[in-house]
Write a structure and sequence with these properties.
The chain is α+β, with helices and mostly antiparallel strands. The protein folds into 4 domains: about 20-170, no CATH class; about 175-305, Alpha-Beta Complex (Cathepsin B, Chain A); about 315-450, Jelly Rolls, CATH 2.60.120; about 460-580, Sandwich (Jelly Rolls), CATH 2.60.120.380. A 6-stranded antiparallel beta sheet has the order 8-13-9-10-11-12, sandwiched between helices. About 35% of the residues are buried.
């Protein structure tokens, strides 16, 4: 029995109505409660991807994500999408709340969030919903989950997204993006299909796909929408033919190429039976669902979005952090000294192991989400877990591709048993703004993961310049190198020292440390001279783990004489230093 309470009990979100999109505004009449437009409001009648219909909100990727989550729940009888709506009964099933207050669990910016909404929904002058809804007019779950996500994203005037972002928000599953084109030399059609087929039927992964840019004529000819997301509902193989079943979130407009409902020649009775598809019946109603061959998907689509079940991994941990825009240069092409760096140590068992690292940049305002100007990546170095200073020395174990997506997934595959230690470096292309991010590591084997600590408690920066007489060049130029600037410092006790030299990028720079005098016997730690090695563009460093007490001179130089310009010389130590400029 349904009990309706007086309107005074109706819950209204204190944040107010969600901003509407321009298309919604043009058709908008009023906000309504579910019991205003249906006699029997129900949270869920049946979970089905076929009942989901997108309207005028530009959230095709979100609706596609909702569709495949529903298809997964129906196929595997696991509460993947319906479990995120509250209130729930004792069986964990979401229920209709006559008061109109709901909570939806979404994974946003690194953690699960509780999003509180009311059940007011926008309708047009005919009383038709202006948001996504179920073909069963009594069902609410589609409209309410969409409303919660739109609230987080700033309103129904949603700038658009991709399924990696949306599925991660809905499920917390691990996002991966596969570009089929755009010079992707690693994409292999055959092995990729085999992987998708096997993992899809194991229930390990949710899949959507998206078209790229195409002309209106091309879209009309093939029945495709440019830059549009489609849900992958099924993957099949039959006598060497490879098929995917796709759903257009609009619930209409289907593929017009090979094996469309109008392609009578290609369909055999055996294939129709195997795929449970009757072209003649399909011609009578366009529900946006169609079969397409793997070859045509590769030809006409651009990207595949995967979301992996985190339950595949026994172990996981995460770190939340911030990268201040003031830390380091705009570009990290020459120096990684200021990039966030992490140590990952993996205990690989016999038979090998996989370790996945998900970098998620936090989105904190609508404009950021709409334009996504930050290009992030993760670069992996096979090291003993020490800090990396030069981008290419040592060469990356796994180099990253900088993309303007909030999520970036790096996969490490280990084949030899034993301990493997890596340095993980967060990188940006032309850093402009402070970013907040989450790093989450997944593996089936034991690992430790931590930020690389610094032993340096004290930092001093000396501003200098090479100018005229003092631009002496390197030691190859004996007559002039003696004129380079010289700084002197004193160490009172043994400790670590890191020297960093930053100069104009167009010059190759280097530095040298010369022992002037020692306090006591330095033993094996003593040295006459040490240098930063090969001269490098714009940046070099010299790190000495234990430098004995004494007085030392530092000589920064460019490779060639007469290369004028300013420089910064940074001293990093565990104890305070006395520094002076001699010349």
């Amino acid at each position: 029995m349904m009990i309706y309470l007086p309107s005074s009990f109706d819950f209204r979100d204190k944040c107010g109505p969600l901003p509407l999109s321009p298309k919604q505004k043009a058709m908008f009449s009023r906000w309504v409660r579910p019991n205003d437009i249906t006699n029997n409001p129900t949270m869920i009648y049946t979970v089905s991807s076929f009942s989901i219909k997108q309207t005028v909100v530009s959230d095709c990727s979100f609706v596609a994500s909702l569709a495949i989550s529903a298809a997964y729940e129906r196929r595997y009888n696991k509460k993947l999408i319906t479990s995120i709506i509250y209130p729930q009964n004792k069986k964990g099933e979401p229920e209709y709340n006559p008061c109109g207050k709901y909570m939806v669990k979404l994974h946003i910016n690194g953690v699960p969030r509780k999003v509180v909404i009311d059940d007011l929904l926008p309708v047009d002058h005919n009383g038709e919903l202006l948001c996504s809804y179920s073909n069963n007019k009594n069902e609410l779950w589609i409209s309410l989950i969409e409303k919660a996500y739109m609230k987080v994203m700033g309103g129904y005037d949603f700038p658009g997204s991709n399924s990696n972002i949306d599925l991660h928000a809905l499920t917390g599953w691990i996002p991966e993006r596969i570009a089929m084109h755009s010079d992707n030399q690693t994409f292999n059609k055959d092995s990729s299909f085999r992987m998708l087929y096997q993992r899809f039927h194991k229930g390990d992964v949710l899949i959507t796909t998206a078209t790229g840019v195409m002309t209106d004529e091309e879209g009309e000819r093939w029945g495709l929408v440019p830059t549009h997301a489609y849900a992958v509902l099924d993957i099949r193989e039959y006598k060497g033919l490879r098929f995917l079943q796709l759903k257009n979130p609009w619930s209409h407009l289907r593929w017009k190429g090979r094996y469309s409902e109008n392609d009578i020649k290609s369909w055999t009775p055996e294939l129709q039976k195997y795929l449970n598809f009757d072209p003649r019946t399909a011609q009578k109603i366009d529900n946006g669902i169609f079969w397409i061959t793997w070859e045509d998907l590769y030809k006409y689509y651009d990207v595949i979005y995967l979301s992996w079940n985190p339950g595949l991994f026994k172990e996981s941990t995460c770190i939340h952090s911030t990268w201040d825009a003031k830390q380091g240069p705009v570009k990290d092409a020459y120096s990684l000294a200021n990039n966030p760096q992490y140590r990952l140590e993996v205990q690989c068992p016999q038979g090998g192991a996989a370790v996945w690292i998900l970098l998620s940049r936090h989105i904190t305002d609508k404009d950021d989400f709409a334009h996504n100007r930050e290009f992030i990546t993760m670069v992996v170095y096979k090291t003993d877990g020490k800090k990396i200073y030069y981008p290419a020395d040592p060469p990356p174990y796994i180099d990253g591709i900088r993309i303007n997506s909030p999520h970036y997934l790096t996969k490490i595959t280990l084949t030899s048993p034993g301990t493997h230690t890596f340095t993980l470096v967060v990188s940006q292309y032309e850093k402009q703004n402070t970013i907040h991010y989450t790093l989450r590591v997944y593996s089936a084997c034991k690992f430790t993961f931590s930020k690389i600590p610094t032993p340096y408690a004290v930092s001093r920066r000396m501003n200098g310049q090479w100018k005229g007489h003092s631009a002496g060049g390197c030691g190859n130029f004996r007559d002039t190198c003696k004129n380079n600037p010289i700084y002197q410092f004193q160490m009172d006790k043994t400790g670590p020292l890191l020297l960093e030299l930053r100069g104009p990028r167009q010059y190759s720079v280097g530095l040298e440390v010369v022992t002037v005098s020692s306090i006591g016997d330095p033993g094996s730690l003593g040295f006459q001279k040490k240098n930063s090695g090969d001269y490098r563009c714009g940046f070099c460093y010299l790190e000495i783990e234990n430098i004995p007490p004494g007085t030392y001179n530092i000589i920064p130089s460019t490779f060639l004489p007469q290369q004028e310009g300013p420089f910064f010389l940074d001293f990093n130590t565990a104890i305070p230093l006395k520094i002076s400029q001699l010349q």
